[in-house]
Specification:
The complex is a heterodimer of chains A (111) and B (110). Chain A is built from no helices and eleven strands. Chain A has strands at 4-7, 10-13, 19-25, 31-37, 43-50, 53-57, 64-70, 73-78, 87-94, 100-102, 106-110. In chain A, the strands form two sheets. In chain A, strands 2, 4, 5, 6, 9, 10 and 11 form a seven-stranded mixed beta sheet that branches. In chain A, a hairpin with a 2-residue loop joins strand 5 and strand 6. Chain B is globular. In chain B, a hairpin with a 5-residue loop joins strand 9 and strand 10 (98-100). In chain B, strands 2, 4, 5, 9, 10 and 11 form a six-stranded mixed beta sheet that branches. Chain B has a five-stranded antiparallel beta sheet with strand order 1-3-8-7-6, with no helix packed on it. The chains are: A mainly beta (111), B mainly beta (110).
Chain lengths: 111, 110
Amino acid sequence: DTAVSQTPKYLVTQMGNDKSIKCEQNLGHDTMYWYKQDSKKFLKIMFSYNNKELIINETVPNRFSPKSPDKAHLNLHINSLELGDSAVYFCASSQGSKGYTFGSGTRLTVV
Amino acid sequence: TQLLEQSPQFLSIQEGENLTVYCNSSSVFSSLQWYRQEPGEGPVLLVTVVTGGEVKKLKRLTFQFGDARKDSSLHITAAQPGDTGLYLCAGANRDDKIIFGKGTRLHILP
């Protein structure tokens, strides 16, 4: 019955690898997001998808590519991982301006 | 560029004390949200305020939106160890684009 679920919870990988993080929401929300939270806990938006259309791309490197097969899913694929990509990545969803429901995060460590 | 400044950055107080944290901006927001984030989890929405001057209460937590819709405060009465966490404010502009402040880390000592 989890509202926004993302997998995996932890991801440790070597530089140069390609990895994906999956996200699913069962709230019927129209918009889904990917956020990056750095070591200082600052949340910065990466992507926003509304009804499978990308509506925000906040100057994220093109190594990051979101994929939304349907309204309930928004996956994040990362190519050629770099040390600076290490962070916690959060998926979220929303309906209008009622606030976000976040997943529990994926802690990515690039070694 | 819209910015949200939260203060203080860190706050450590004894159980039972009262506290207020602040969220300030030079920009006007159509609404403002407060979230609490615990270690290893995602932020959880506490409240959304929409009208200038609006006050909302959630048990011992009181949220206020400034009259000009540029700032907000969160007041906690008789803090409990369970209130410990990272408190984030987030402002929404007219396009529903939301920006987050950098948060206040609150630690309640038993």
